[in-house]
Structure formats: structure tokens, C-alpha cells
Amino acid sequence: MTFGLMLGKGHEFRDLTLVNSKLTTKEAMLIISKVFEMPLFQTLGFTGYPHTTEILPHLVKTILRTKRPCKLVLNGVKLDTRGFFVLAQLLYTHTTLCLLDLTNTINADTAYFITEPLRHNRSITHLELKNNLALTATNVRNLCDALMHHRTFKSLNLSGCLLFNESVLHVLKLARTNHSFTELNLSKNEFSAHAADFLTGTALTMLYLTDNKLTNRALGNLYEALAINTTLTILEAPRHNKLTEPVPIRPNVLSANTTLVQLNLTCWNLTVDSLSTILMEVATSRALRVFRHKTSNAICLAVVSQTVNLLRQNRTLVGFELGNMPVESHKQVLVDAMRSNPSIRHLGKSYPDLDPFTARNKHNRIMKTRTLLTMMIARPVIKNTLNNHTPKRQRTQ
């Protein structure tokens, strides 16, 4: 769909991202003015756009005139000191900017331009700081101090920032102090401990710990802390590297938890007894809706039989994934049990050839992204479409 057609459907247009665009500064500023005139427009993004610093003052003025909540995404853009100063002014003055995404944009020297204005900002609810590899423990401490008493702040994403235990302790202090803070992503970092501490004394409802350096003891403590947690609904703690030692699993954890809805334990090194214990509690859990556990270890027949009984009896699960099953007959038996359960709507990626819901889920994802436009078009096309959508009265003048 061309940009002109999207402009024609302005009542549906919500998001615009300029990806490595060759637009000039003047053309980009014209597009910004046009899209913010649309009644439902919310999100403006720049990914690798080389002229972001030049258009940022115009962008800030446009956003300041906007009375509805809006989102700004600066992904992998190179801002100089002037650009960060303008961005700091936006954070100081704007009252409806609810999401700020600075993925792969800031470093140890420029983080100050973000952390200091956040002490005074009360509109930001979501802060995305993914893949900023140069952030130091001091930067993280200053950021957490700035958000400590921010009562509208909800979500922080620090995935892929090479955070170690010292930095994680600062984030933990923030989570235990600010109870409006409910979503945290610390995936793909380097810390090895303190994961279980996020489940006690905090108000977190979503915690993502994908592919960290957590030891088997730290993972065991994390799972055990679920028994006393009363807020968490989603825990994603898969690993890409298998642990050499098995994770110690205590019984009566999931049965004691009444809030957890989604649990991912992919690549946890679990013994047969530990896995059986978890599956038994999944079967009796009244809250759990999605469970995933994939491992390089072959699943034995006893676990397959137990899982089949779980799937046939449980009526609360809507998503389930268990692997690896090298025996095709075991996989087919498991899928047949899933199909006999009307409540399960997703089987996971372990069974793409047998999953009857794969095509439907793919269709739903396409439908959800209809309003997202990624701009990768030439300058003449932009110029012509903008001129064609200028009111006739204005063109004749």
C-alpha cells in the first residue's frame, strides 16, 4: 500500500516509521506535519534516519501542539549534543508523550540528557532503552533514581544492555520503591543473580528474563519465589544455552500461586521428576493459561503419558508447548490430546506441521499490523502523493 493510499485513510492511520529513508529534511518535516493532523495518529518512529537531529526541533514543536497521547521512537539514530538537548526540552515540557523508545541511541555520555529531565516528567509511562551497550552502572543508577517517585511510570525495557549484578540491584531498588512500575524486561544481559528478588516486595506483573547468565540455583530460587508472589502474571525466563546442572524444583509452587497466567521455562535443565512435578501442578492450576518448556533432552514416554492426561482434563490452558520429542508417534499423541481439548488455541512452534491453528494465528498477526506503515520509498513518490492530497483550493492559490 502506497503512502498516498494511507493518507487517504487518515481516520485509520496510527503509526509511521521512517526506516533508512532518503528523504530530505524539508520532506520529512512536511510528512511530520501531515501525519500529526490525522485524528488517530499516535506513533512516529525513526530507524537509522540520518537527518534526525535537523528535524528534531520541528518534531518537538509539532508534538507540543498535540493534545492527545503520542509515542516517539528513535531507533539507532545518531544524535549530536544539540539533538539530545532538544529531546531533553521535550521531556521537560511535554505532558502527553507516553512512550519514548531510544533503542541503540544513547551511551554513557548522552544518558544524562535523558535521566535528568525524567526527574521532572510525569507523562512517560513506557521507556524502551534496548541494546544500549555502553550504559554503565552509574547511568542505570541515575535512571532509576529519576524514576523512583514517578507515579505514572509503568514499563522499562533494558534488554540487551550488558547489565551486570550491580546494575540489576539499582533496578531492583526502583521496583521495590515505585509500585506503579509493573513491567520489566531484562532479557539478554549478563547478570547471574537477584532474579528471585524481583518477585518479593514489588508490584511487577510482567517480568522478562530471556537468555541471561542465571545459574541453576538462581533459576531454582526464581521458581520457588512464585509460591509467595501475588502480583506476577507473566514470567518469561527461557535460556538459549543449556545448563550443565539440573535446576532444583520445589513442589507445591504453581498450586500455591493464584495470579500467574503465562510461564516459559524453555531450556531449563529439569530432571524427569522435576518436570513431572511441574506438569502435575500445571494440570491443577486454576490461573495458568500458557505453559512452555522446550529442551534438548528427549522427553520420556512416562512424561508424554502424564502430559496427555493433563491436556485432556485441563480446561484453563489456552497455550501449551513441550519438546523435544524425537519420536513422531509421541508428538502425534500429544497433538491429538491437544486437539481434543477445546480450550487450547495455540500449540507453539514445536509442531508447525501439526498445529491446526498456525494459519489462523498468522492471519491474525497480519490483520493487527495493517495500520503500521514502514516508510522505504523514494522522494518523488512522497512529493507527488503529498501534492495530490493537498486540498484543491490551496493548490489553485
Concise account of the structure shown:
The chain has 397 residues and is α/β, with parallel strands linked by helices. The protein is 37% helix and 13% strand.
Which bin fits the share of residues in helices?
Answer: 25-40%
- Sum up the overall morphology in one term: elongated
Q: Count the DSSP helices.
A: 14
What's the total number of strands? 13
Q: Distance between termini?
A: 30 Å
**What is the SS-derived class?**
alpha/beta
H-E string: HEHEHEHEHEHEHEEHEEHEHEHHEHH
Mean of the pLDDT scores? 82
Strand order of the largest sheet: 12-11-10-9-8-7-6-5-4-3-2-1-13
Residue share in β-strands? 5-15%
Q: What is Rg? A: 24 Å
Major β-sheet, in short?
Answer: 13 strands, parallel
Overall description:
The protein contains 14 helices and 13 strands. The chain is α/β, with parallel strands linked by helices and 397 residues long. β5, α6 and β6 form a beta-alpha-beta unit. α5 runs parallel beside α6 and α6 packs parallel to α7. The longest helix has 13 residues. The N terminus and C terminus are likely disordered.
